UniProtKB/TrEMBL annotation:
It is found in: Membrane. It comes from Flavobacterium qiangtangense. Keywords: Cell outer membrane, Membrane, Signal, Transmembrane. InterPro entries: Bac_surfAg_D15, BamA/TamA_POTRA, D15-like. Residues 156-239 form the POTRA domain. PROSITE patterns: PROKAR_LIPOPROTEIN. This is BamA/TamA family outer membrane protein.
Length: 774
């Protein structure tokens, strides 16, 4: 098929889709394809006119049918489905869920849109605004656009802003103090939205000072436009009809807590009637069964008797109660106190989650190494183990992964194990630490065991334990510090086949791979580790958002110094040489929003591990790996590197995992919504791993100054099905650069042959996964 034929088919498709949409329109009507706004004003600069046009156009209603390269796929599917005979089935789903009915020109109210544009412009300070509208295109092709012309006239500026001057009135005096940080500035254009924001700012600040009953509606900002040419004076006042209680500062009096509150009014009445109030510090607790230790309220609630009310402590207290993870519902109420003047009684109604619960999960998974499998997880939880909202979790798991086809067929992986963790909603230790804002600091202790069997190769038993802290400074910054983390790995049932792969037979075809010995060596790792995470991706209005995670892992630093660790004669603990190393990893992500439903997501990962003292190499489980579903998707999982090394594996043997001491990975991905729940992506991945020291058994694996010439590169495209509760991801990728090929021949663009079956089998990699790769 030549290029001209492809072009003809492409344009024929556009024509057919366009015609098929238009022929279903009602007689005498036309398809509304959008509106435009033109601002005409000789006193405004071109930049100002364009900015105002970009603000006005989104106000036009209705919105036209969404288009994609001139096509309207949702409208096409709507017409394709026809009129369904019942409210279910494929045709109903295609027409009403995927499709979209035509937006007709008869639905457009030009006069209404004119009034909306005029009102918006006047609220921005433009007076004597004139608007006009017209439509074009109806007689030609039954597609109509609406065109609006706005002549805004001159824009008023703020000449002065006056806050209350009555120093004898407490409320007006406090409002006057807020003038220093006012968002209404002299010389700014008059803007009604900014005035509303200023009222809300003043109300927020007054809430912090104890004015519980105050409201933005009690503020009046008068506008005087007679003070000068194109200028206004703004005067901030408290309305005369403001109630007396809104002018008073309130303090906290009684604090009453109902830890077993239910939504049923009769149940709650019975609980209150049968309960004997318990006093603990400033709190009155109504709890017949004494479900919780009263100390949790002292750690969680910010208010105490006599405190001046403020909105920050109000919200932080609620946030902390929710973040305990113990209560299903948290409700708060303030009522005027009968015992003191200008006092508030605080009531907290807490509905607990079931104390004990069990959850069973059955998972199915697949990866780019062509392994498919299943896993069973059973979790038992106790949310209030010692009456201090402690969370005890016992987990048992088991699963298997098999390769249906490929070189690792028959080398199946079976695993089972268990884990026990206990989380306290506070810091436990000799020093006092606080977590910021409404986040509860946590202490966690964990022990676990996992048995893994790789059929025809070996088995591994892993024991682990840790004790550490988790806390947040705020919604963006999170810390995790494990004071100690211990991992002990031992192997068994090493097969002759695996040992032969290690030893080799001395021939060039099978020189052996001593690095595989590290997988089955006994490993003892202990020491602290720390990670810090920063993200502002929750701020959806920002055009640029980032995510960063950095981690530092130290093993046997002090022990190695005390015992004099030496890699030539390694020191042992309980007969096992302990690992001594420092490991650091940084991950940075950047999200650039192109539009409402499209963005460019990028990621950089850089990591390094340095063995020293008692070790001459990093333990296998702490090394870096690259390639796979969430990494470089054009290569099998853990198959790249290190460096330019490629293991020479016989066709009847297994493919080993490749590991390294350094890692560099770069990913970028364009994401866009196609229609309904279907999103698309085009991506490019690059990276590799390397060794710190030269290894004779793996030539080309050492890190050098020419590392950038050894990067693996892959590209591809994918679909994401966003089901709200999960994202199903399908990616198809192929390599562009293979670092293990001879220098000068690593780029494989000239070797790409999609029509060749052998090439497809070797290079096309399909990834099925849950969630986005980053």
């Amino acid at each position: 098929m030549n290029k001209s034929t492809i072009y003809y088919l492409f344009f024929a498709t556009l024509f057919v889709c366009g015609c098929s949409n238009l022929k279903y329109l009602p007689e005498g009507d036309a398809l509304y394809v959008g509106g435009s706004v033109k601002v005409e004003d000789t006193t405004m600069s071109k930049k100002q006119r364009k900015a105002l046009e970009s603000e006005l156009e989104p106000l036009l209603r209705p919105k036209p049918n969404a288009s994609f390269f001139g096509l309207r796929p949702k409208l096409y599917f709507y017409n394709l489905a026809g009129e369904p005979t019942k409210d279910k089935g494929f045709r109903y789903w295609l027409r009403n869920k995927v499709g979209q009915p035509p937006v007709l020109f008869s639905q457009v109210d030009l006069a209404y849109n004119e009034s909306i544009l005029q009102n918006y412009a006047e609220n921005k300070g433009y007076y004597k605004v004139r608007t006009e509208s017209d439509s074009t295109g109806k007689s030609k092709n039954r597609k109509v656009t609406a065109e609006y012309t706005v002549r805004p006239g001159y824009q008023y500026k703020i000449k002065s802003v006056t806050f209350p001057t009555d120093t004898t009135n407490t409320l007006e005096r406090d409002i006057a103090k807020l003038g220093r940080r006012s968002r209404l500035r002299v010389g700014q254009p008059y803007d009604l939205d900014r005035i509303k924001t200023e009222r809300e700012r003043i109300d927020t600040r007054l809430k912090e000072q104890g004015y519980y009953y105050f409201s933005p509606d009690y503020l009046l900002i008068q506008v005087d436009s007679t003070v000068g040419t194109k200028e206004v004076d703004l005067i901030v006042k408290v309305k005369d009809e403001t109630p007396a209680k809104a002018k008073q500062i309130y303090t906290i009096d009684q604090i009453t807590i109902y830890p077993n509150y239910t939504l049923s009014a009769s149940d709650t009445t019975n609980i209150i009637a049968k309960s004997t109030p318990e006093k603990y510090k400033d709190f009155t607790i109504i709890d017949t069964t004494r479900t919780f230790d009263p100390r949790i309220y002292d750690r969680t609630l910010y208010f105490h008797k006599g405190d001046v009310y403020n909105r920050t402590d109000h919200n932080l207290s609620l946030n902390r109660l929710v973040n305990l993870g113990t209560f299903k519902f948290v409700k708060n109420e303030f009522r005027p106190s009968d015992s003191i003047e200008n006092g508030l009684n605080a009531f907290y109604y807490l509905t607990p989650l079931p104390k004990k619960s069990i959850r069973v999960e059955v998972l199915a998974k697949t990866n780019s190494a062509n392994y498919t499998g299943t896993e069973l997880n059973v979790n038992w939880s106790n949310r209030n183990t010692f009456k201090g909202a402690e969370l005890l979790t016992l987990t048992g798991f088991g699963g298997m992964e098999v390769q249906v086809s490929g070189q690792n067929k028959g080398y199946n992986v079976f695993r089972f194990g268990g884990e026990a963790s206990l989380v306290w909603p506070r810091f436990i230790g000799p020093f006092k630490m606080e977590s910021g804002e409404g986040f509860v600091p946590k202490t966690r202790a964990l022990i676990g065991f996992e048995h893994q069997e790789r059929q025809r190769l070996y088995t591994l038993n892993t024991f682990k334990g840790s004790f550490g802290y988790l806390w947040k400074e705020n919604a963006r910054k999170e810390h995790q510090l494990n004071v100690t983390e211990i991992t002990y790995v031992t192997s068994g049932n090493v097969t002759a086949e695996y040992q032969a792969q290690i030893d080799g037979d001395g021939t060039p075809e099978n020189p052996g791979n001593p690095a595989l010995q590290r997988v089955i060596d006994k490993q003892l790792i202990f020491g602290p580790n720390y990670s810090y995470t920063y993200t502002n991706t929750m701020q959806r209005r920002k055009k640029n958002t980032i995510y960063y995670k950095g981690s530092l892992d130290l093993s046997a630093t002090i022990t190695g110094l005390v015992m004099g660790g030496d890699k030539n004669e390694p020191k042992e603990i309980l007969g096992v040489p302990f690992s001594q190393f420092a490991r650091m990893e940084h991950e940075f992500r950047h999200y650039y929003k192109l539009g409402r439903d499209s963005q460019i997501a990028s990621r950089i990962i850089a990591g390094v591990g340095v063995p020293y003292g008692n070790s001459d190499q990093m333990p296998f489980i702490k090394q870096f790996f690259i390639g796979g579903t969430n990494s470089i998707r054009a290569f099998r999982a853990r198959s790249i590197g290190p460096g330019t090394f490629k293991d020479s594996v016989a066709s009847n043997s297994f493919l080993p995992d490749q590991s390294g001491d350094l890692k560099l990975e770069l990913n970028t991905e364009y994401r866009a919504k196609l229609f309904s729940i279907v999103h698309g992506a085009i991506f490019v991945d690059a990276g590799n791993i390397w060794l710190m020291n030269k290894d004779e058994s793996r030539p080309g694996a050492e890190f050098t100054g020419k590392f950038y010439e050894q990067l693996a590169v892959g590209t591809g495209a994918g679909l994401r099905f966003d089901l709200s509760f999960l994202v199903l991801r399908l990616d198809l990728a192929f390599p562009l650069r293979k670092p293990y090929l001879p220098e000068g021949n690593r780029w494989v663009l000239d070797q790409i042959q999609f029509g060749d079956r052998a090439w497809r089998k070797e290079n096309l990699v399909f990834n099925l996964a849950i969630g986005y790769p980053f």
